[in-house]
From TrEMBL:
InterPro entries: Catalase, Catalase_3, Catalase_AS, Catalase_clade1/3, Catalase_core, Catalase_haem_BS, Catalase_immune_responsive, Catalase_sf. It comes from Terribacillus aidingensis. This is Catalase. It holds the Pfam family Catalase-rel. Its EC number is 1.11.1.6.
């Protein structure tokens, strides 16, 4: 076997990679040692900015296989027939922590899937929870600020976290899930995934349906005791990352089954909860789960940075047959995610191997940093043109939808933030309730302002009186009079 020759980034052979070029044995180092300069300069630039959220993550390759005919609901080609397989890549992540944070913290987990379909890439960018903390993207920067560090102390700030949540009662449903047993999954393989938002499927006839995605783990849901999680966080902060890698490396390929809930378009006007409100779920009694297919992870990345860190996902990466809904949070994400990648990885992030579509890509986007393909060559670079350049395909236009109303800054019409969290609490066993209450108490004890505690307890009490009283007792405070009445 012939040894590989070490070269510079421009391909010239390196004569000495152990010693700098110096004036004599003691130096000084000479600026003409361009190999040294290139190594140091590249090293200074090896880190792209970490993600503002979902910074810590793990990824894997696999495939998605259709197991049930859903073609009457969507014309998406990768879902067109039973048995059809599509390559995919998934990235799991925590939300609030930095790149070096621990895997086993109490936090939602990102669940972002990229399908490499014959009609372009389709990204389903969700979480391991079916709901979210807020329902309008205008609140997202403020919410994430509360999860980050105090600008003076540079410490996490429980006052900010609970102040925001107590002033945003729509968060209670997600906070309840976060404080439940499922707030710390045992492994990334032992948790469900959700698209969370409402999306729209459109079939070949142009008929539309509202849809919710549910990925059900076939390894079974398993969670981690908070004390064990804290111990592992200190001793092995990359526990979930290693577990996923080792499972796949050992041939124990994790699998999820994908189900959807389908709602006729007209039901959105009469359903008892706004179906576009991401802080709410649809009852599975009203809209039962319909099997779609299975996702299998069977290959680890060869290079973490190239594949996991440079992977970019956006709910706006869509294919024909799949569209969005009026969900206000989703609408904001359509811009924010693509824009985050343009800032973090570059304007040409979609051309990177991990993100590039498997079908031919033809457009008039040119230039920009890190343009490493042929940049369109000598081909036509504007449109319309008479030079046989790429043209739009009218059959791929989105299905028309009706809009109405006056332009204004308005919220959702419905503001019942308590029924679903209360129902969730009442579905729990007594042991689950006890752990939930204790997790709330433990998380809220560091809060220094009593009015924040009282405000949050007031929301819990409105969801379920017993639950609210138990949290209040654990914190040693009273139920606010205005709430109790």
């Amino acid at each position: 076997m012939t040894d590989k020759r070490l070269t510079t980034s421009w391909g010239a052979p390196v004569g000495d990679n152990q010693n700098s070029l110096t004036a004599g044995s003691r130096g000084p180092t000479l600026i003409q040692d361009v190999h040294l300069l290139e190594k140091l300069a590249h090293f200074n630039r090896e880190r792209v900015p970490e993600r503002v959220v979902h910074a810590k993550g793990a990824g894997a390759h696999g495939y998605f296989e259709v197991t049930n005919d859903v073609s009457k609901y969507t014309k998406a080609a990768f879902l067109s027939e039973v048995g059809k397989k599509t390559d995919m890549f998934i990235r799991f992540s925590t939300v609030a922590g930095e790149l070096g944070s621990a895997d086993t913290v109490r936090d939602p987990r990102g669940f972002a899937v990229k399908f490499y379909t014959e009609e372009g890439n389709y990204d389903l960018v969700g979480n391991n929870t079916p709901v979210f903390f807020i329902r309008d993207a205008i609140k997202f920067p403020d919410f994430i600020h509360t999860q980050k560090r105090h600008p003076q102390t540079h410490l996490k700030n429980p006052d900010a976290v609970w102040d925001f949540w107590s002033l945003s009662p729509e968060s209670l449903h997600q906070v309840t899930i976060l404080m439940s047993d499922r707030g710390i999954p045992a492994t990334l393989r032992n948790m469900h995934g959700f698209g969370s938002h409402t999306f729209k499927w459109v079939n070949e006839k142009g008929e539309g349906y509202w849809v919710k995605y549910h990925f059900k783990t076939q390894q079974g849901v398993k969670n981690m005791d908070p004390a064990v999680a804290a111990k592992i966080a200190g001793e092995h902060p990359d526990y979930h990352t290693e577990d996923l890698f080792n499972a796949i490396e050992n041939g124990d390929f994790p699998e999820w089954k994908l189900y959807v809930q389908i709602m006729p378009l007209e039901d959105a006007n009469t359903y008892r909860f706004d179906p576009f409100d991401v802080t709410k779920v649809w009852s599975q009694k009203d809209y039962p789960l319909i099997e779609v297919g299975r996702m299998v992870l069977n290959r680890n990345p060869e290079n973490y940075f190239a594949e996991v860190e440079q992977a970019t996902f956006s709910p706006g990466t869509l294919v024909p047959g799949i569209d969005v809904s009026p969900d206000k949070m989703l609408q904001g994400r359509l811009f924010a995610y693509h824009d985050a990648h343009r800032y973090r990885v570059g304007a040409n992030h979609q051309a990177l191997p991990i993100n590039r579509a498997r079908n031919e890509v033809n457009n008039y986007q040119r230039d920009g940093q890190m343009r490493f393909d042929n940049n369109g060559g000598s081909g036509v670079y504007y449109e319309p043109n008479s030079l046989n350049g790429p043209k739009e395909d009218p059959s791929s236009k989105i299905a028309p939808f009706e809009v109405s109303g006056e332009a204004d800054s308005v919220g959702y019409d419905e503001n019942d933030h308590y029924t679903q969290p209360g129902d969730l609490y009442r579905l729990m066993t007594e042991d689950e309730k006890t752990r939930l209450v204790q997790n709330f108490v433990d998380a809220m004890k560091p809060v220094t302002r009593k009015e924040i505690l009282e405000r949050e307890v007031g929301h819990i009490y409105k969801a379920d009186k017993e639950w609210g009283q138990r949290v209040a007792d654990g914190l040693g405070i009273s139920i606010p009079t205005v709430t109790a009445n």
